[in-house]
Amino acid sequence: MSATRLLLGAIGSVTIVAIGGCTTPPAPTYDLVIANGRVMDPESGLDAVRQVGLRDGQVAAVSETPIVGTRVIDATGLVVAPGFIDLHEHGQAEESYRMMVRDGVTSAFELEVGTADVAAWYAARERGQIVNHGVSIGHIPARMKVLGDPGTGLVPAGIGGSGTATEAQMVQMEALLRQGLKDGAVAVGFGSAYTPGAPMSEIERMFRVAAEGGASAHIHLRGGLPGLNETIAAANAAKVPLHVVHVNSVAGDAIDGFFAAITAARAAGQDVTTEAYPYAAGMTEITSALFDDWESWPDEKFGHHQLVSTGKRLTRVTFAQARKAGGTIIIHSRTEAQTRAAIVNPLAMIASDGFIEHGRGHPRTSGTYAKVLGRYVREEKALPLMDALRRMTLSPAKRLEPRVPAMKQKGRVHVGADADLTLFDPATVLDRATYEDASIPSAGIPFVIVNGQVVVDAGQVTSARPGRGVRAPH
């Protein structure tokens, strides 16, 4: 080798050493990195320690080796799961969002009652919320509007529930439902239990409107097991995908029969799904048609009802007073065995049916997901963790995907998915809210991320409002 080449080699060698001695950390590649967490993805079955890189609101990397981000969250000991998707959340305002997000919810949908004006509903929230949100066009509010119901709450307080619609009124309801679907409603909501004046022929007729729009029908049905069978038959005739809300609430002691009927319908090729919440008590408005027969109740039945505004159990006298004044009541009507049967059944998605206002409501708003994870998964070992997560994330997303393509990127942890993630400690996660104080947040959920932004940071809600309206193409 010539002297010149030796000299160049030496200079090159010195140059390399000099650069190596002055190395600086590589520039951040991701906006946020979640490091060393146990990533659980129900779609792929991934259950392993990974590094998750987020960029521009999406999952950009799921890596076995370290990666660099502008911020790094050390998730050692935590599960990194898709953000929980709640298909049944009435509390569509800041107060409820602040509670549900600390329970791991990143997308909240009002699909049972819905709204009569879809465009206005989304417009009212377009400045950004804590979580993603969406709504159905609702048969209940459409009926209330068309029939002139005097109620100002979620459900009818008079003719909207008990009245019989004329042909002209049903045409008006159909028009409202079609407009809502045109405006991007996620689904069509029903509550035959709250509209006893609507025969099944009316429900089936509105089911057909939902089917025309490629939407699923989410229904709080009436009539126990015979009512379920009638509803399944009407949905089959209308060729509409059917979702039975809170099966634990509508089934009561017929819970096994409900699941058997749903299983049989699915085996026959019908698209039927359901959901449950992990509490033995329900909650609704005291003026609703559910209580039209209250005067015939035996005295002991009133004690099963608890007035939300005071936390006190009712008597015949105080029930009558509350019925006149209005408000919400908690109904202690089921057993733990009935609740548990619904939660452990793999058919039931998890959904809260939540609502909280002025610090008062039902603990399911604040604790549904943490209770399933803490009590039924960890303490009782009644269902596997991955299956619980599937029913909180992937299954709800898939329920909505045929009409709402945006849901194909939620409920998963893979490259390209929306960066909606919930980080929880499987050893400590648990609900803490009570029937007397529904405002106590869940424990063991230190970080929640919505569209790539941290909305719960070390257990505290941040000022970020990245939540967007989720709706069908319109």
From TrEMBL:
It is an enzyme of class 3 (hydrolase). Its EC number is 3.5.1.82. Keywords: Hydrolase. Gene3D superfamilies: D-aminoacylase. Domain 3 (3.30.1490.130), Metal-dependent hydrolases (3.20.20.140), Urease, subunit C, domain 1 (2.30.40.10). Transmembrane segments: none annotated. Pfam families: Amidohydro_3. It comes from the Bacteria. Residues 169-456 form the Amidohydrolase domain. GO terms for molecular function: N-acyl-D-glutamate deacylase activity. InterPro entries: Amidohydro_3, D-aminoacylase_insert_dom_sf, Metal-dep_hydrolase_composite, Metal_Hydrolase, Metallo-dep_Hydrolases_sf. This is N-acyl-D-glutamate deacylase. The lineage of its organism: Bacteria, Pseudomonadati, Acidobacteriota, Vicinamibacteria, Vicinamibacterales.
